[in-house]
Specification:
By secondary structure, the protein is α+β, with helices and mostly antiparallel strands. The protein has 2 helices and 5 strands. Strands 1-2-3-4-5 form a 5-stranded antiparallel beta sheet, with no helix packed on it.
């Protein structure tokens, strides 16, 4: 009988921790974008197929690449609308839009920097589990 409880406890804690790992969170999102630095941006046009759809009952899919502008140095600025975390989500700090920009060298297409758009909530930018 003790073995049954040990197995149950191990399975329960494994499922509990795998759920935490699958969610990912904000820091893995930042790490993912930091990993783009120094690499080529191959997108000039890109609209998400799931645009406007509700995902998981709490997140609305964004447009994708909304537009490209230039800064005073001639760099391209790619503006991304990833998603919106809806008010019914349990973590109220994460409610809002996940929008980022990438600064790209116009000749090499290498990503030089990135950041959150002014109308974005950085905490809504997370890596979500599948």
């Amino acid at each position: 009988m003790i073995t049954f409880y040990k197995i149950f406890f191990i399975l329960f804690t494994s499922l509990l921790f795998s759920g935490c790992i699958m969610r990912g969170g904000h820091q893995p999102f930042v790490k993912m974008y930091n990993n783009h630095l120094g690499k080529k941006n191959l997108f000039d046009k890109y609209k998400f197929e799931s645009y406007g759809q509700i995902i998981g009952g709490f997140r609305k899919s964004g447009y994708g690449l909304t537009h490209i502008t230039k800064d005073k140095n001639g760099n391209l600025i790619y503006h991304w609308d990833h998603w919106e975390v809806l008010p019914n989500y349990n973590d109220k700090k994460a409610v809002g839009k996940c929008k980022v920009y990438e600064i790209v060298d116009p000749k090499t297409k290498i990503v030089k920097a990135w950041g959150f758009e002014p109308d974005s909530n950085p905490l809504s930018c997370q890596v979500w589990g599948g």
